[in-house]
Amino acid sequence: MQKWTVNEAQEGETITGLLLGRFPELRLEEAQRILKKGGVKVDGVRMKKDVPLVAGDVIEVYPDGDLAAFAPEAEVVYEDENLMIFNKPAGIQCVSDKMDGKPTLYSLAVDYMRSTGEYEVNSLSVPYICHRLDIDTGGLVIVAKNQLYFEELFEALKQRRIRRFYKAVVCGSVGRHSQATLHDYMTMDDGRGKVFHSPGKNTAPIATRYSLVKTNGELSLLDVELVTARPHQARAHLASAGFPVLGDEVYGNRRMNKKYDARYEALWADKIIFETGTNNLLEYLNKKEVSTQNIVFPYVDWGEE
């Protein structure tokens, strides 16, 4: 079940219009069918007519087979009283400044904390996204449940006391048993929304480790660790080394993306290791490892193992 509250920007939208905004890949006829079958409640009342909504309406959608393929499922893979770790699906943003009704990891985290009774604005018990993944990259994201632990986690990430690992399918044969640490400098071009590699003024040093898991000669599966953590680092750095991530339309190989019908980047944040040390608020997490095996790159066929 998906549940959220209509905001002021969505007031006046019809139920089907809101469904289409919430689930971008849903078609109008599919939204109408879900409504007709009684799959939507407004303030606890099951609706079968397409009516306009007002701010504050609570929408509940019950994902039968029609909706399940489109509803983002951000699984909570670890939780304690201070933080959550979500497995973010590819195709949704972590946060957004647009009031367009589309789900984000933040909105899903708000819904989750409301469902557990932990959401309380006055005490600042609200979700705080501690780091971000690109919209088309799936995987583990740490979300603090209050401001105090957000500040602690953010500082630990900055000091590299929280290590983040990825699985990546890249174009090209890296070579068996290959591993390396890449070093470079990068700068972000905000106007073009991409990064460039060049030492000089206003650039930042970056380091990325990778090791080969397997290859079929045309594609390679890598374990990747971001030693530093800069925007677009994994995608841009691997591409600059000659191994662009499959499905990446910014730094990648479009011919290979088309050949494999790769709609999303074959890049997944699959493991987090806490090396938080002692005598701090995060001491209880020291040496903890959180990982997920829920990684699906359906367009990759490795052949026989």
Automatic annotation (TrEMBL):
GO molecular function, one term: catalytic activity, acting on RNA
Enzymatic reactions: a uridine in RNA = a pseudouridine in RNA
Domain of life: Bacteria
Pseudouridine synthase RsuA/RluA-like domain span: 82-240
InterPro entries (UniProt xref): PsdUridine_synth_cat_dom_sf (IPR020103), PsdUridine_synth_RsuA/RluA (IPR006145), RluA_PseudoU_synthase (IPR050188)
Keyword terms of this UniProt record: RNA-binding
SUPFAM superfamilies, alphabetized: Pseudouridine synthase
GO aspect biological process, one term: pseudouridine synthesis
PROSITE patterns per record: S4
Pfam family, one: PseudoU_synth_2
Protein name listed in UniProt: RNA pseudouridylate synthase
